[in-house]
């Protein structure tokens, strides 16, 4: 029984380390959208990046088999909020080499905020199998040093 107790504590510790050490958090945001009207919805009619004094907001749409926009420029060292939805099936949105990673589910708006400390080019991939062209589904994130200020 002591061994089982130790295992439970160890498993809970891995969750705590993930939350505190790697800034991994479960989604805390529920916002819905009609997936058949994504392009007419004012929240997603103009995908792209807006920058203000607080940081940047990225509005992007996943669809078979691309992200819109395909190239995203954000400033380094400032909070970047991603707002994503899907126009068709479930996709993934993983910014390789960072903690930016979420599912993109039709009918819902996925949102997360992160800070990119290292300027450079990052690959964004779809990590949920979404069809025959899944392996082609990618985009580019460019993190600019002090760039894209308002
Ligand atoms: Cu996909």
Which short descriptors sum up this protein?
5-stranded mixed beta sheet, binds copper (II) ion, 150 residues, 10 strands, mainly beta
- Note the overall shape: globular
Radius of gyration: 17 Å
Order of helices and strands: HEEEEEEEEEE
Measured by DSSP, the beta-strand proportion falls in: 35-45%
How many beta-strand elements?
A: 10
Distance between the termini: 59 Å
Total number of helices: 1
Which hetero ligands occur in this complex?
copper (II) ion
Q: What is the residue-mean pLDDT, rounded to a whole number? A: 91
Tell me the structural class.
mainly beta
The amount of helix comes to 10-25%
Query: Main beta sheet, described?
Result: 5 strands, mixed
**Poorly predicted regions:** none
Can you describe this structure?
- The protein is mainly beta and 150 residues long.
- The protein has one helix and ten strands.
- The protein has one helix spanning 2-22, and strands at 48-52, 55-63, 66-68, 71-75, 79-86, 91-95, 101-104, 110-115, 120-125, 138-144.
- Strands 1, 2, 3, 5 and 8 form a five-stranded mixed beta sheet that branches. It has a five-stranded mixed beta sheet with strand order 4-10-9-6-7, with no helix packed on it.
- Strand 2 (55-63) and strand 3 (66-68) form a beta hairpin.
- The longest helix has 21 residues, at 2-22.
- The N and C termini lie far apart (59 Å).
- Copper (II) ion is lined by residues 62, 91, 126, 130, 134, 137.
- Copper (II) ion binds at residues 62, 91, 126, 130, 134, 137.
């Amino acid at each position: 029984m002591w061994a089982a107790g130790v295992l439970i504590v160890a498993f809970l510790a891995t969750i705590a380390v993930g939350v505190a050490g790697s800034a991994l958090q479960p989604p805390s945001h529920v916002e819905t959208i009609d997936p058949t009207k994504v392009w007419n919805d004012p929240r997603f009619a103009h995908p792209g990046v807006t920058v203000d004094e607080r940081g940047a907001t990225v509005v992007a749409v996943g669809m078979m088999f691309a992200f819109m926009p395909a190239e995203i420029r954000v400033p380094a060292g400032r909070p970047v909020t991603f707002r994503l939805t899907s126009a068709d099936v479930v996709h993934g949105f993983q910014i390789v080499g960072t903690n930016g990673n979420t599912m993109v589910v039709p009918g819902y708006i996925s949102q997360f905020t992160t800070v990119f400390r290292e300027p450079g080019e990052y690959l964004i991939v779809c990590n949920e199998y979404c069809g025959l062209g899944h392996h082609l589904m990618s985009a580019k994130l460019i993190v600019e040093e002090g760039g894209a200020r308002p």
